[in-house]
Every structure is written in structure tokens, then in C-alpha cells.
Amino acid sequence: MGAPDMEEPNFTDSELDYQVRNALKAAVQGDCDSYNQLVGVIHHRERLSSEEVAALVTCLKAVTASVSCVHIVHHRSLLAAICGMSLWNYGTDVMDALVELLVSLASSRGEYVELCLETLVANFMPPSGPSSTYYSVDFWKQPRGIAKKTQVLERVHSTLKDISHLVPLLPKKLEEVLRIKMPNIYTKEPIMVMYVESMLRLENSPMGELVGSSVLYSLVDRLIELDVDIAWDEILQDDFQKGIFDMELEDLEGHGEDHIEDDCDKVSRDLIIQRFFSGNLVAQKLDSLMVLTFEHFNSCHERGRLDKVFATFLESFKKTIMTAYKSKFTQFVMFYACSLDPEICGTQFTDELLKIFMTDSNPEWRMSAVAYLASYLARARFVPVTVAAFTIERCVVNWCFLYCQNHNGDINPRAHKVFYAACQAIMYVLCFRLRQMLAVPRLKSQLVLMRIEDILGSPFKPLQVCLPSIVEEFLRLVKASNVISLPQSFLDHGLLESEHSRAFGGSERFDMFFPFDPCLLRKCDSYIRDNYVYWSTVRKAYEEDEEEVTSDEEDADTISGRGNRRMSDGSEMSDEENFDDDAFDCSLDKMSITPRDSSAKFGGRMQRFVQMPSKIRPSTSPESL
User: Fold this and answer.
1) Bridge partners, residue 532, by sequence
2) Residue 142: helix, strand or coil by DSSP?
3) Cα–Cα distance between 539 and 558 in angstroms, integer?
């Protein structure tokens, strides 16, 4: 007796089960008529009528009941049709029938597990191609889109959970599938975000104990790929290339006194970021994925498991982030996690950086580690000044002092580059933290007892090798505080960038690498800024102190009618002559470490002190700022 038409649901469920079972068996023998009809029903992709939906649901259920008859070789086209179905294209009836079939397939034979996992993981995202044109980017922001997303992903994750209870080896296979199916950096942002949301949902589920590490490693790898794909040459354009990194985002709030004036134009912080990243889709993707990571940290912190997740991120940081010398923003995942739990996560982070700096055999990694340490101690508002002082003295300063005692030689940027990196780290941290240390009597005494002057005055001459902008700001503060004794020749004038300072950084310019300079990603910045120390705030405090000290001298100058300014060579310039320079620099004086006057840097007419960097381009920076 011939099989009834499977597209016409005019038969009972038991009859259809019988016909499907026979069709599967007949296909093994070479009779594929009924089998092909079955495949056609399941493979139908066009918009379905209610009758066609009913036939599809019935056929899926019939295959579920006959799953023991499915053969991976003889029924390859059927398996391809099943695994090619997307939950996003159907209603809830078809969704439920399909996930039930996937559970039955995965639990029937081990050879089907990977196929079922690939199908489920593929459904982390809506399908691509002509059939998915209905799902525009805006669709997922609408109530219908949100509802569809919830319907699909709830079923996907519950099915993965069900299969994990039936298949002991599922986690191992799932790790590989998640890694392979991870969307590339060219995937549209909403789709990539959906996939990462599901990955982190898995990590935060009971299965996270088994697959969590691989999920987080894959996430960090993708963050780094996005990060290094953001080319500074594409971001720094037109007039912004002149001085955007001279500004700190804190001072660009876009209201009142926080506006930045340059040639009478007031530029808000939001406008600066918009000019940077408008149209830069890679930066926008990175921003969104990092925010997802931040929110995942928040969830883990609330559930008391942040320390476990952070341990995985710390391992990934050592292998991926710290060794990616062009990383600009990804490292802020570590900064944010440490801000949530400074005592555990923050301590683990600094301990690991110190361990790498003091014991690793790779000099570039050691330089990177001490740069991360200095930038973290300087920028993290949540790190107590006592911790910063202790870390710098007991580990970095003491290491440098012992290095001077145990090594002979003269200035040599290449041979002693780790030593110079450590010296620069000391000066960088003190530029940010010196005022706080001086306010605590115990720390002030501790600072006086440090052997910093012996280190900086050693035959290795670190003041002639380290980044001049850091050196000059450090010397200016030292001269004002009188807490560290240095030769007057160092304190009276600045140092220019030389062949020694350029050679120290090498081709990757490690001397200019400050990993936690202000984050220019819009959404990330809103998470970071409350726990972040901006140089403009520090510089303002120093300037207020200096104004108190020099107020009497200024009053005397005013009374005597002196309106001229002293220049570095001892000559004077009138206020009228210098008016244009003041107008141009008024908004930058309090923020920048980056030398703005290149003529001054290379021996031009105005040899003035440079100031601390708000943002120095990492390894792609030019030889000269």
C-alpha cells in the first residue's frame, strides 16, 4: 500500500509515525520516494500556511518517534534539512517540535551530538542571507523583535541544558562548537552582541563550571581582534590629530566651565567621541561587547563568583591582552573587574604584574607588565595611596636600586631597557600620587627614605633615556616639593628627546605605552570614569598648591608693573607678544603630558616644561610626539 501524502495531514499521528518509519527503512534499501517527500516537507523554507505548519510539526514529531531508525549516512539529506532549520523563522509550535527532535537525536547516538550542538549554537543568532531580510537591525529593538529573541533563546538554552543531562561528553564538544561558531569581527553589531550574550549566559549557568573558561578565552580573543583592527590613523584625522590626546575626557563634559575652548570653539566630550568613532563600526562593536563583559562582571559579583571569573580573565590577560602591544581598550575589562573587588581582584592583578616584571625571561613582557602596573596604580581611584606607595617602593624601587648595585656600565637603552621601563614607572606613578603621599606623614617619611635619587643619578642616567614628558613633569614636581634630592642641573631645565630615549622604546615604543590612559569608547567610559583618576584633576591640585606659593611674587610683579614673562634662556617676552600662544594653549595647559610645541621639543625657541599625557598612542605612535 502506498504511503499517504505527507503534506496532507489527513491521517492520525500513529499512522504518520508508521509511514515515516517505513520511509526511513525503505531509504536504506534504496526506495527513496516517501523519504524524499518527508525531506521536502521539512526542508520547505518559504512562508508557510497554517496547513503547512501543521504538516511540518506532525512530521517533526513523527521523526522524533522514529529517531532510532535514522542513519547518519543513508539519511544525510534529512539530517541536513533538520539541522538547517532556524528557530527564528518559525512560530512556537515548530520551535517546540524541533528542539524536542534535537534532544532525541543527541541522546540516541553520540555521532549526532555535534550536529545538534551546531544547530543550537547557530540559533544564538538569527539566520543570515536573503531569507532573513525581514529581521532588520531596528527590528530587534522593537517589542516584536525582543519577544522573538526571548522565545528563541529560552528554548535554545533550555535544550542545551536538557542535552547536558543526557550526554556526559557534551561540555567538551560544546567548547569546540562555541569557538568555531563565534562570529568574526565583520559581523553586524546586533548579531555579534546576541551571540556573546548567549555565551556569557552559558558561562553564568551550571554548565559554566565546565565550559566557562573556554567561553571567556574566546571572548577576550575576539575583543583583542576588534581592538587591534581599530587603526589610529583612521581615528586621528584633520585638526584632531593635533591635540586630541592632549585632552582628557573628564574636561569635555559639554556644559558650563567644563567646555574646552580652542579658537573660540567649545567642543563637548560627546562631540569629541562622536568625531572619533562616528562611522567606525569596529570601535562600536568593541564598545558594546566590553559593556556586555562589564555587566557580566556585575552579575558575577552579585552572585559571589567574580573571583573565579577574574582568575580566568587574568590568565587570558597574560596570554592575549598583555602581549598585544597595539591593544588600546580591551585592558579596561581588567580595570573594571578590579574596581568591583579591589582587595581580591586588584591584589591578584598587581601581584601577577609584579611577578611577570621581576621573574619573566621575556624583556618585552617585563616592560609591558611594569607599564601596566604603573598605569593601574596611577589611574585607579580605588587603589589606596598606601597600597600604591608600598607596591612602588618594596617592589619597583628596590628592584631598580639592586639593579644599579649589581650591574656595571653606562647609559645603554637597549641593554638596560627593563631597568629604564621600571624607572619610568616610578616617575609616572609619583606624578599622579606624589601629592597624596606628601599629605600622609608616614608616607612622606617613607618617600624621603626611598633611594630614588640614587637610582636616577646612577651611571645608567635614566633621566636621559625615559620619555622626556614624564621626566620633565616629574622633575617639576620634585623641585616644587623638595622631597627628593636631585642635581640642580636636572631641575633647572627640561630634557629633550634624544637618540637614547628613542632607542629605549624600540620599534614598539614601549616607552610611550600607558595602558590605562583615558578610554575613548563612549559606553565603556560611563562605566570607568567614576573610579578613574584623570590627569587634569591631579594637575589642577598641583597648580592650586603652586598658586598659593607664588601668589606673593605675582602680587609684587603686578605692583611693579612688570608685564613680561621670563623665558627659559633668561630673556623676557611681553604679554602682548605671547597673547596668541596663551589663547591657543589655554585649554591644554592643565591636561597634557604630550609635548604640544614640537619646536620646543627639538630645541626650538621656547624650551618650556611639557606635561603629563592624557592619552599616548600605543605601539603605533610615531617616533616623536
Assistant:
1) 380
2) coil
3) 25
